Amino acid sequence: MTHTRVGIIGAGPAGLLLGHLLSARGVDNVILESRTREHVEHRQRAGILEQNTVDVLRACGAGARMDRQGLVHEGIELRFDRESHRVDFPSLTGGRTVMVYAQTEVVKDLIALREGPLLFEAEALSADPETGVVRYRHDGGQHELRCDFVVACDGFHGIGRAAMPSITTFQRDYPFAWLGILADVPPSCEELIYAHHERGFALHSMRSPHVSRLYLQVDPRDKLADWSDERIWDELETRFAVEGDWKLERGPITDRSITPMRSFVAEPMRHRRLFLAGDAAHIVPPTGAKGLNLAVADVTLLARALAGGEEGLLDGYSETALRRVWRAEHFSYQMTSMLHRDPHQTPFDYRLQLSQLRYTAASPAARACLAENYVGLPLS
Ligand code: APR
Ligand code: PHB
Fold this sequence. Notes:
The protein has helices at residues 13-24, 37-42, 51-59, 64-69, 90-93, 103-113, 229-239, 291-307, 313-339, 347-362, 364-375; strands spanning 3-9, 29-32, 48-49, 71-73, 75-80, 83-88, 98-100, 118-119, 122-127, 133-138, 141-152, 168-183, 192-195, 202-208, 211-218, 253-267, 270-271, 274-276, 282-283. With 380 residues, it is of the alpha+beta class. The protein has a domain at 3-51 and 103-171 and 263-339: FAD/NAD(P)-binding domain. Strands 1, 2, 8, 9, 10, 11, 17 and 18 form an 8-stranded mixed β-sheet that branches. It has an 8-stranded mixed β-sheet with strand order 6-5-13-14-15-12-16-19. The protein has a 3-stranded antiparallel β-sheet with strand order 3-7-4. Strand 1 (3-9), helix 1 and strand 2 form a beta-alpha-beta unit. Helix 1 (13-24) runs parallel beside helix 6. The radius of gyration is 21 Å and the shape is globular. The protein starts with a strand and ends in a 5-residue tail after the last helix.
């Protein structure tokens, strides 16, 4: 294996879906993944698929298990001041919804469908935008793969961005992080709850009718050892408090992590033979559930462009992809700013937040704006 049409670095959602879409179009491609299959299939990440992502996975034959096991959601709940306010999706977006289906499951489905070469424990060491040569380490030796095109789907910590000869980055780091848990307990609500509280943000999500996924805003300097199970559940209970008899169910915590929050964009997303896609090019705070969905949008566009036949798509990839990226960056920033307590926030800022939440809850126009961004603007 010394040459391929498209060399793909990374077997996360972006790399795997790109490989699948290219193979379906008869475009030879090789995927190099530095970690093990076990690792990439069990790495806890996002869980919300936009309508576009659902449509793309179904159209390319990767949606069967998603349709069997995924949960279609028609709205979310905003919770603040001990009040509960639902934002309905179909009535505000012409019928669009989202699917709750873990990124780990999308990755497993795409690996199971993989037709071309997919090398695990194969670490890309360099990628040359001019020659398309990728050097990688695998099975104890160093190898070279000559590619007509290289797509770095290698995430925020990959080598892709460093291989771009000139790149401009835009970044905002937030003064808080998310402590996320998986718990073996049925969800306490059928839909997601985004809670604003004076002590900080909390999110109630789920993975199945038997597994809950919850998040707490914490200090970015916090360590998991600072948070006992009891402290986590007590804090969640406090932040989700609401009038009425709603109760947060507790259960065994089976996975936990603390994730920093940042907004990040690298421009451009192409230089000559080298392309960036997914987290390699952009990061959003998870409040808008856009990370995985942006990766899907990038590679859906790039697969069409690399398959050829549509003039200008390849040259227009970076500009077209970045328009959607910046829209998602703004939406994710807005959701994050509206719902989190910034430790440097003034009382004036806090009242602005409450005013925005109350307006969003009361105004059909404001709810429609949130809904259409949350379910995802049409890919076209
Ligand atoms: N060589 C080979 N593989 C690499 C290298 C390298 N040098 N560097 C990183 N990788 C692999 C990582 O091990 C990972 O499996 O690239 C993959 C990148 O996958 P993701 O980080 O999941 O990024 P992406 O596919 O763009 O998906 C974005 O995943 O991280 C979440 O929040 C993110 O939901 C978003 C989605
Ligand atoms: C998740 O279920 O992991 C999830 C849901 C919604 C978000 C972020 C994460 O905004």
